Amino acid sequence: MEKQYKHWEDVRDLLRNWREENCRQSEDVVDLWNEVLANHFGKLGDEGWLVLEQVFIAALDCHNMEVANFCLSKLNQEFPDSLRVKRLKAMKYEASEKYEHALDILDLIIKKDETNAASRKRKVTIYKSQGMIIEAIKELTDYLRIFMADQEAWMELCDLYISQQEWNKAAFCVEELLLHSPFNHLYLQRYAEIKYTQGGYENLEVARSYYSQAAKLNPKNVRALYGLMLTSVHMASNSKCPSQKKKESIKLSEWATNQLSQLQDSNDSKLFSSQILEGMGNLQIGNDSKN
Amino acid sequence: MASTCELSKLAYSKIILHAFKYPHTAINGVLLANEGSNSQSVKYVDAIPLFHHNLGLAPMLEVALMQIDSYCRTAGLVIAGYYHASEAVAEMNPDPVSQKICEKIAEYFPNACLVLINNRQLSMQMTQTSLSVIQYSDGKWKVKDKENLKILPNNEAALNSVSTLLSKKLYKKFVDFDDHLDDVQQDWLNVSLKSMID
């Protein structure tokens, strides 16, 4: 945040951008509110309520309870019976680690409105904050049975499974995401990463094809390029690999290496080629069933 | 005869800056020691931050370790430890991923240490080191006593130095390996920050 935003309209536009892109810039949001926007709140009109909500959540993230309380009281004044504001109250309890109170409020909201997706998701986060990952997974899978098109939820479930090293289930989540967006290079790359981590020659092949597709869709996806290089080299050096695939793998890894060196225009491109290929054998962390 | 674990001001600062840059996710990184170190009393001279997303996935971890290993050979260093901060604020135990990675490191550097950040003790004005260390020796994990963890030159000076860095919000410029993978121009060695830390 080097640029000094002096004009409140610029700040308002910036916050709007961040809202739309779902950016997590909590420290900056609270600073901008305190320095600029708080004094011009009256000029924001209806957008002001969205800004208050955004600042409230950012303040909770920074544990700045003063700002959070101010925002919440203003919102409560304007929308006293709102379920959305009630959910924000639950978030405040969550931030103060009063999880029982938070859960009570959320359960009340869900009882009043069974279609309230956001409240159900907050229950998942409450379990996650306490480190109760198994419960969080159960809550999230129940949620997804009802709201099965929620991509954010599938991604979160994938992350939870990865943290529990449940590779098959994590892969399943990404498969759901790929059904929604088959040309999303990030989902393809994520799928490849899970398959690679699972280990075994067949998974290596699958990983390589998903990395290839990701790199094809976005030749600047560095993780996909590295992944392509890794999988190709492992496959080429594996005894199970037929000679035609070996040649294919070597060509792929050369292409990936070239793309990577083009992206990095400094001298460090030397790091990519020989040293990495040399070091390949020593540092395999994934399951030892690679060979 | 307890062995000590020492962290240079640079290594410690990097760990804390990494934690502050991504307070809402788990983070991890490796610790470097001088080549040929006595592994009974380890002195970590530098730290390389790794990831803040999906710490459990293998491919990028392998790429990162290869590049760090390459760098170490040119700088006379060796990967000798690992640090980790959990996502949940109250979590004080190392997760299976951290243990696996540290066991791998211990294959090359016996008695590697796993440094865990105590999230609750972190603050803009640091008053406690906020670290706990467990060491992998003879196939077992042993918790190290607080007295055997030292930050150089001494705890107080290091804490003051880090608090100054935090007040200047230097963590915003800090780069980890995930940031480098998002934009290859970013330097995961954080060379420009090094002069500000010293």
The biggest sheet of chain B, with number of strands, parallel, antiparallel or mixed sense and barrel status, is:
8 strands, mixed
Radius of gyration of chain B: 15 Å
Biggest sheet of chain A: strands, sense, closure? none
What is the average of the pLDDT values of chain B? 89
Structural class of chain A, please? Answer: mainly alpha
Biggest protein-protein contact in the assembly: A-B, 37 and 33 residues
| Average pLDDT of chain A | 88
Number of helices, where a helix is a run of at least 4 consecutive DSSP H or I residues of chain B: 6
> What is the CATH first-level class name of chain B?
Alpha Beta
Protein name (chain A): ER membrane protein complex subunit 2
Main location (chain A): endoplasmic reticulum
Family (chain A): Belongs to the EMC2 family.
Function (chain A): Part of the endoplasmic reticulum membrane protein complex (EMC) that enables the energy-independent insertion into endoplasmic reticulum membranes of newly synthesized membrane proteins.
Topology at a glance:
The complex is a heterodimer of chains A (291) and B (198).
Chain A: H1 8-21, H2 26-35, H3 47-61, H4 65-78, H5 83-95, H6 99-112, H7 117-129, H8 133-146, H9 151-163, H10 167-180, H11 185-198, H12 201-217, H13 222-236, H14 243-263, H15 274-279
Helix pairs in contact in A: 2-3, 3-4, 3-5, 4-5, 5-6, 6-7, 7-8, 8-9, 9-10, 10-11, 11-12, 11-13, 12-13, 13-14
Chain B: E1 5-7, H1 9-21, E2 27-34, E3 42-49, H2 58-75, E4 77-85, H3 96-108, E5 113-117, E6 131-137, E7 140-143, E8 149-151, H4 155-167, H5 177-182, H6 191-197
Parallel strand pairs in B: 1-3, 1-8, 4-5
Antiparallel strand pairs in B: 2-3, 2-4, 5-6, 6-7
Helix pairs in contact in B: 1-4
Short overview:
The complex is a heterodimer of chains A (291) and B (198). By secondary structure, chain A is mainly α.
